[in-house]
Amino acid sequence: MEGYYDRINRTWLYLGDGVLFKRGDIFRGQAIMSQPGITYGAYGEGDKLKFYGWDEDLANPALWEEYDKEHHIWKYTNKVLDPGTLVFNDGEKVSRKHIPSFRDMQFVCRDDESKPFVMADEMTENLDIYWHFMDVLITRPSKGEDFPIPQVDKTTMGDLYLRCDEGNPGAVFNSIEVIAKRIAFTCMNNENIRIDNICMKYYCFGVSGGHGINGLHVSNCEIGWIGGNIMMYLGTDPNYPEGRRGSVTRYGNGIEVYGTCNGFVVENNYIYEGYDAGASHQVNARVPQDMKNVTYKNNLIEKCVYGIEYFLDQIDGESESFMDDVAINDNIIRLSGYGWGQQRHNYYEPALIKGWSYINTARNFSIENNIFDRTAYRMLHLVAQKDEYCPVMKGNTYIQDKGNMIGQWGGNEVKEPEIEIFDEKAEEKINNIFGDKTAKVYIIE
To answer: pTM to 2 decimals?
Structure first.
């Protein structure tokens, strides 16, 4: 199928057209740049068609050469885009990815920047990976520092090293998939796009939209094993707050809209194993940006660090942006912080719904009739500048281990709301603090 993405992206389509892919097929590599008014879907019978992020399955002995016999390190014989991780045998195992910081013209250990990064010393566990690159250095300042750092973009290629104690990884495993720094569907500045009945796996993003999109509907899709790729080396690292210029930020969401949007619908999808959010709408607004008519409905989202994420931060005095008519209803969201993405440095951030503690100006915001099933940290992080911006909670089901967290709800204009604990008073707290008077609460002893 070489070149089919290019043929689709070059073909001028008309409003109301559809691009249908045959069920049961697997398409690999960079995917679709959407066009306005188009439905992308499937035809025929059988399994969902599959979009996979990298050009080939690495479970082939000819694709690996022994690099360091003493430390069981193998090198992939082809160059590769930044891998979020490697996934073995369709999720049976995953790699732990080592990403060093970069200072004084060398890679250094992320947790101790005084220590040079030595691959053999750091790759101490079976299936550890390291991706080496530094072909292009940039000097754009960050935090007042302007020393060179590696540029990592969608074209940056590097060498992939894998520790495999059992021998040649291509012979040990039936499948080895790269979560590649690619996007399955890019949807920017377009109107009325529908993506339906497609499986997207091993991408940095499944669906990425925003910057003025009007009408994006993602339904009946399977989106899994997403993200973990390098976003940038700039020292503004939420995964490692002490980081300076030269430290690294990782990212990757299943479905995301960034910036102004109207009519963003995510429904009837299965989304799982995401490094960041299963689905998200978000923006750091320096000019007015409104996110209107946003709906998440009837989705199953599990083992993503954030099940559903939203935020609106107003920067440099911007004060007009709003979220308006947001509904998170009838979803099952479970096991945030229990997937592979918990390799992250900020291990304390998982939440089933993650609104962070931004200004989050909103109106007509509801969270109703969802099932919230356990998390490694907060169940809910629902904070805004004022109580009136926070979502109205109604009829949700809460399942959590005793002693773990419910989370936060409320305005932080005066002070940050307390993190509430899931204990024998959990139902009372959910009723009175979160305002969910019709909640069902189940404590796992």
So the answer is: 0.95
